[in-house]
Structures are given as C-alpha cells and as structure tokens.
C-alpha cells in the first residue's frame, strides 16, 4: 500500500504555491490525497466541486495524487483514509503560530498521524488564495501565480472574458 499523506486545504482557488507543496509531497509519499475542506469562517468564491475539478486539472500529471473532499475533522478524515501523515505548507513565520496550534490539537485528537511542514519556495512565500482573488477581482495580472485553468476560471467568475 505504501505511505499515504493528506494535503488539506480550502484551495479557493489552488495557487502555484499549493501546487509546489503538492508536487513535492508526491515525491516523498507513495500516495497523496489532496483534500478540499470547507472552512466555515470563509466565504468561498468556488464551490467544492469547482475546487476539486481545478485541483484535478492542476495535478493531472502527478499519477499518485487523488483529489477528494470532506466535511469531517481533518484527523477523522485522515484516520478513515489510513493516512500516515498530513502535509502542510508554511509561507512565513506568521503561519507557524497558527499551524502550531492546529497541529497540537490534531496530535491530541489522533497522535498516530504525523504532521509534516514544508516551507514554500521563496518565489511563493507571499502568495495566498485571498490575494489572488483580490487581484483577479480588479482584472490584475495573476499569470505565474495560479495554473492557467484557474486564471481562466477567475476571469470567468469576475466577468473579464
């Protein structure tokens, strides 16, 4: 069966920073599930189904990647999937404190599943889905920040076709 990791996120939308972490995780683990979770604190631009489709398109060249979604707790989902680890990306030191709190709680919920952090490549350290949506909303240039299919979808969402 091999080692399985979960790359969780809201992916609203997927950015090249997300894709970098997913690609690197796919080289370390035998299988990686990219799981779309709905963050109730956020108002998503894309539906879960749209985010899953964009993720599938962006990762189609990675044979050991599966895209899924869940509305369960991450640790419950990871246990259901028999995952060995959760992979999270860190952009900056400001991410660390937030991620540390989540990881500590996740460890309490399920100490069997490890959380691994990957630092994003420097070229993506400033990048966030929120920032991309804000730029796209005003028809700014987001090339190089998101996969081409995402750029086209954002233009469609904001009526810039």
TrEMBL record:
- What is a single Pfam family found in this protein's UniProt entry? CTP_transf_like
Q: Name one GO cellular component term.
A: cytoplasm
Annotated residues that bind ATP are located at 10-11, 18, 89-91, 99, 124-130
Task: Write down the chemical reaction(s) this protein catalyses.
Answer: (R)-4'-phosphopantetheine + ATP + H(+) = 3'-dephospho-CoA + diphosphate
Name the residues annotated as site: Transition state stabilizer: 18
Q: Give start and end of each Cytidyltransferase-like domain.
A: 6-134
Keyword terms: ATP-binding, Coenzyme A biosynthesis, Cytoplasm, Magnesium, Nucleotide-binding, Nucleotidyltransferase, Transferase
Identify the cofactor(s). Mg(2+)
Keyword Lipid metabolism included in the entry's annotation? no
Q: In which pathway does it act?
A: Cofactor biosynthesis; coenzyme A biosynthesis; CoA from (R)-pantothenate: step 4/5
Q: Name one GO biological process term.
A: coenzyme A biosynthetic process
Query: Where is it located?
Result: Cytoplasm
Enumerate the GO terms in the molecular function aspect: ATP binding; pantetheine-phosphate adenylyltransferase activity
Q: Which InterPro entries match?
A: Cyt_trans-like, PPAT, Rossmann-like_a/b/a_fold
EC code: 2.7.7.3
Q: What is its main location?
A: cytoplasm
The UniProt annotation places substrate binding at: 10, 42, 74, 88
Q: Which domain of life is it from?
A: Bacteria
The record's listing under NCBIfam families reads:
coaD_prev_kdtB, cyt_tran_rel
Quaternary data: Homohexamer.
Family per record? Belongs to the bacterial CoaD family.
**Function, please?**
Reversibly transfers an adenylyl group from ATP to 4'-phosphopantetheine, yielding dephospho-CoA (dPCoA) and pyrophosphate.
Q: Identify this protein by name.
A: Phosphopantetheine adenylyltransferase
- Per the UniProt record, the source organism is Oceanobacillus piezotolerans
The lineage, from the top, is: Bacteria, Bacillati, Bacillota, Bacilli, Bacillales
Task: State the encoding gene.
Answer: coaD
């Amino acid at each position: 069966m091999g080692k399985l990791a979960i790359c969780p996120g809201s992916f609203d939308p997927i950015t090249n920073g997300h894709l970098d972490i997913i690609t690197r995780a796919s080289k370390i683990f035998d299988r990686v599930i990219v799981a779309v979770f709905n963050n109730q604190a956020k108002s998503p631009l894309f539906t879960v189904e749209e985010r899953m489709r964009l993720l599938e398109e962006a990762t189609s060249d990675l044979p050991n990647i599966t895209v899924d979604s869940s509305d369960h707790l991450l640790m419950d989902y990871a246990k259901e999937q028999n995952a060995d680890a959760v992979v999270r990306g860190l952009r900056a030191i400001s991410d660390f404190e937030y991620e540390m709190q989540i990881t500590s709680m996740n460890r309490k919920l399920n100490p069997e599943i490890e959380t691994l952090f990957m630092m994003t490549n420097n070229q993506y350290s400033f990048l966030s889905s929120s920032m991309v949506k804000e730029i796209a909303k005003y028809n700014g240039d987001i090339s190089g920040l998101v996969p081409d299919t995402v750029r086209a979808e954002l233009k469609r969402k904001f009526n810039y076709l």
